[in-house]
Design brief:
Number of helices: 12
Structural class: alpha+beta
Number of domains: 2
Order of helices and strands: HHHHHHEEEHHEHEEHEHHE
Largest sheet: 8 strands, mixed
Distance between the termini: 54 Å
Radius of gyration: 23 Å
Shape: globular
Length: 365
Amino acid sequence: MKTIDVLDQFTELDRSILKYHDQYVDYFDYLRKIFGALINSFNERASEDPQEIVIIKTFIQRFLNTVEAFRMKYVFDEENAMSIDLTDSSFPNHMEFRKLLHDIENRDQMLASLPSAETLKQALLDKLFTNNKKPSKLMMQLAKRTYLSQLNTNRLFIPFTPGELVSVSRDDKEETRRYLYSWGSYDSVTNRPFVYIMIFDQPQSEPALYSDKAKLDELVSAIWKIKRDTSPLKVIVTEIDEKFPHIYPKVLKRIDLGPLYGKYSKDDSALTRIIKTYFDEDDFIFVFTTEVIFSVGSKKSGSIFSQGEMRQIFFVDESNKDCMERNVSQVHKYMMAPHDVVQHMRDYHKEMVEGLAMPPITVTQ
């Protein structure tokens, strides 16, 4: 049987290399500016759901930390370049995150093979004073050392980024405990970051999950294996429900952070055409979507002759075309763009704005 290389699923635009190496400096600044604006927009909405806002902001910041790590890895490396998805993404190709994991696993060995930071800095100064040429090799080594030193999985956004388990207060008379667990992932198909928030119950008769590390690790491991960002939420949450008899998922929310349409986009989407036709390279349209599926009850699995396990009944809103196609209870779409772009959308593409969950988020350039 022929083995399919993961690279086979990508087109040339999905793994584009910028024409000039210096363009990467601008690219990293571009991502930092837009995600910084996104964090600020959530700061203004902090009163809506403080706990959820903090979770989303935390994962966005971790994504920004990873962008900074990529900057240190590539900006002085004239022999290698980062691949970017220029179709319905504008973010690094998923393979860059796989390389990041490889670097994390081999971090200590790679650091040991490099001169110390002090040695490199002194050699760099000596070169600058005695030679007019740019000491590219020394700068690359120093950048690589800085990059490797920053590789801490507790602060980075990686292909699967575990969050925290939080106990949700409930009445002591309730038969179940309630928890909130979050995680992030970088999708290998869309090349976009996703954030997940799950609320679930656990019977009081079971050992508390926050004190049972082995059981929690088992749950996190299962989520990592089940995780498929292009799968309907109902499929994902049903698999979790079936795999763990004493965990009752009540709500699963997915936040799709992207696409970003702007100067790096090369797809044929309507938003790319609008940006390219009417606006300059500093303008952009950032789109993000939330999907939610929730339980409306539970039932015993199996036949009437067997005890069976408790299973959740998940609601899909079949009266809403978007919800029915996605197999979810709710879908909310959001848009963020500079003021001039937002005004243009309201004046000439009203239909794209009316379907949003809230007015477009306006960014001051």
